[in-house]
Specification:
EC 3.2.2.-, DNA-binding, MPG_sf, DNA repair, Putative 3-methyladenine DNA glycosylase, 194 residues, 3-methyladenine DNA Glycosylase, Chain A, 28% strand, 4 helices, alpha+beta, MPG
DNA sequence: ACCGTGATCCGT
DNA sequence: CGGATCACGGTA
């Protein structure tokens, strides 16, 4: 199966997010080849999207998001979990799609949980070494999967971005409705002002 | 509900 | 420099 080309990613984040559902995320490292089917994603649209890290502007961390499409954007959060994104859209646009859950396909212990952005990075072996890596490389790429019909796609607000005001309510989280490997809904109330 | 854990960013 | 914050997950 042929890798998704870098041009696949060079489109608005929401389009890429939609088309990422059902694709196969391949991580091939020293510890072997691991593959997961993408079943849940979130689109982060760019600098104007207040939930997007790029809304902080061009910083050392967000630089990769402003670069060419088809790179990995991996960051550490809460000091212990990694999150894996694909950089999308035109160069100069700070957009990306967060992969929030996959289904185990290959190289994973049966029954191992692959839902949740931090967990999927842990089980696939994704870490900061993958940050900025091209998504057409042997060690890290995506493959086309069986097409996911529109009726199977569910949409809702993104998780954990309550700080983003009106942007938090936008239905930019997409998942395969019947997957069974979609992350548990974690609702964080906006922190109450003291 | 609560907290671990460290990078990142911003204000001083 | 300090301190707040964080696109989370495990335990309670």
């Amino acid at each position: 199966m042929r890798k998704l080309p870098l041009t696949f990613y060079a489109r608005p984040a929401l389009e890429v997010a939609r088309d990422l559902l059902g694709t196969l995320l391949v991580v091939d490292g020293v510890s072997g080849r691991r593959v997961g089917r993408v079943v849940e994603v979130e689109a982060y649209l760019g600098e104007h999207d207040l939930a997007c890290h790029a809304s902080k502007g061009l910083t050392p961390r967000t630089e990769v998001m402003f670069g060419p499409a088809g790179r990995a954007y991996v960051y550490l959060i809460y000091g212990m979990h990694h999150c894996f994104n694909v950089v999308t859209d035109a160069e100069g646009v700070g957009a990306a799609v967060l992969v929030r859950a996959v289904e185990p396909v290959e190289g994973l212990s049966p029954g191992e949980r692959t839902d949740g952005p931090g967990r999927l990075c842990r089980v696939l072996g994704l870490n900061l070494n993958h940050n900025r890596q091209r998504l057409d490389s042997e060690g890290l790429h995506l493959l086309p999967g069986a097409p996911v019909p529109e009726a199977a796609v569910a949409r809702g607000p993104r998780i954990g971005v309550e700080y983003a005001g009106a942007w938090a309510a936008e239905p930019f989280r997409l998942w395969i409705r019947d997957s069974g490997h979609v992350s548990r809904f974690v609702s964080r109330a906006p922190r109450r002002r003291p």
